[in-house]
Amino acid sequence: MERVIIHVDMDYFYAAIEEREDPSLKGKAVVVCMYSSRGEQGGAVSTSNYVAREIGIRSAMPCRQAKALNPDAVFLPVRKQFYEEVSDNVMEILRSNADSEEAFEKISIDEAFLEVTNSSCSDPGRAGEIGMRIKEEIRIREKITCSVGIGPNKLIAKMASSFQKPDGITIVRPEEVRDFLKPMPVKKLWGIGKVTEERLAEMGVRTIGDLEEHDIQELISVFGKNRGTWLKQAAAGRDETPVKERTATDQIGRMASLEHDTRDEGMIFSLLDELENDVMARARSRKVSFRSATVTVILSNFKMSTKSRTFSHPVSDMGSLHESAAEMMQQFLEETTLNFRRIGVRVGDLHEMTGQKSLFDF
């Protein structure tokens, strides 16, 4: 089964949030600065919107230099905690569209990978529909935009997300990988920095196509075995690294879409049972019990809501999860007249099981 990976990259994230909060900033050069202890006389640019980038203001540029380029630009201090709150909302949307909790990987405050091999049936076209749904959910819920890349691995998905910025979506099918990479400057290859770019230029390697055709033994002699081999494989678009959370997670969950937006209780509770079974199977495989259960719903207007239950002690039986999840879902149905789009089940506050066996161990 051919893997299908999505990379989502928020567009000028900090500056976009500031534009959302103050619509009068639209159309102006907006620069978000990380000021030093010297106040506005020191520090560096954290990010800037595309208007500012067109006049040469870039991330990591000294704020004083940025102000010299355009004194009329709007300079704002970083509000990291506020941006992190928005990021948490965005990441919840992304996580909910991945094949599973484990098929999601946040790599920074404004970008993440998610694997959709199963939900797309390995079809890049269907993955494109998921990508468009993600863009729409983020636009409606957070009123900011993102760019999406879809490919057969993380390397290609990451590079594809930068291909049509801002607010774009690019699909690279397996048979298109080499044509996609070949004409690009070698510096565009994810993982190549300025020093490597300069050394490759000295070897006559200027495009990714040049790198793919270059003798691997020379690459190994210059960069070492591991780095040289990676350069050759990456230039051919090969990348086997998995999509997974970078830190151990204290929760297990799964989310899925209904066949169509509906309030049909038969369809909703049938899918809920399926999700519960999957979550319990994964809890069993990890030999953990849990103290909390959460049900998430996304309605037809893309609004996301959650309800949680905390147990008095760690539990590990299907009955406890089923009863609490069904109760929460019934409350959702009573609280809204809207149709349901997606639903999810998650257990948290995990505990390793030791000593006496639970019923599902037999």
Largest sheet: 5 strands, mixed
The radius of gyration is 24 Å
CATH fold topology of the largest domain: Dna Ligase, domain 1
Shape: globular
Adjacency order of strands in the biggest sheet: 5-6-1-7-8
Kindly report the average pLDDT value: 90
- SSE sequence, one letter per element: EHEEHHEHEEHEHEHHHHHEHEEHE
CATH architecture of the largest domain, please?
2-Layer Sandwich
Please give the domain count: 4
Please give the number of β-strands: 12
Low-confidence stretches: 355-362
Straight-line distance between termini: 33 Å
CATH class of the largest domain: Alpha Beta
Strand content: 25-35%
Total helical segments: 13
Specify the helix fraction band: 40-55%
Q: Structural class, from helix and strand content?
A: alpha+beta
CATH homologous superfamily of the largest domain, by name? DNA polymerase, Y-family, little finger domain
Describe it for me?
The chain has 362 residues and is α+β, with helices and mostly antiparallel strands. The protein folds into 4 domains: 104 residues, Alpha-Beta Plaits (2-Layer Sandwich); 67 residues, MutS, DNA mismatch repair protein, domain I (3-Layer(aba) Sandwich), CATH 3.40.1170.60; 54 residues, DNA polymerase, domain 1 (Orthogonal Bundle), CATH 1.10.150.20; 111 residues, Dna Ligase, domain 1 (2-Layer Sandwich), CATH 3.30.1490. Helix content is 40%, strand content 26%. The chain contains 13 helices and 12 strands. The strands form 3 sheets. A 5-stranded mixed sheet has the order 5-6-1-7-8. α4 runs antiparallel to α5, α10 crosses α11 and α12 packs antiparallel against α13. The protein is globular and about 65 Å long. The relative contact order is 0.11. The C terminus is likely disordered.
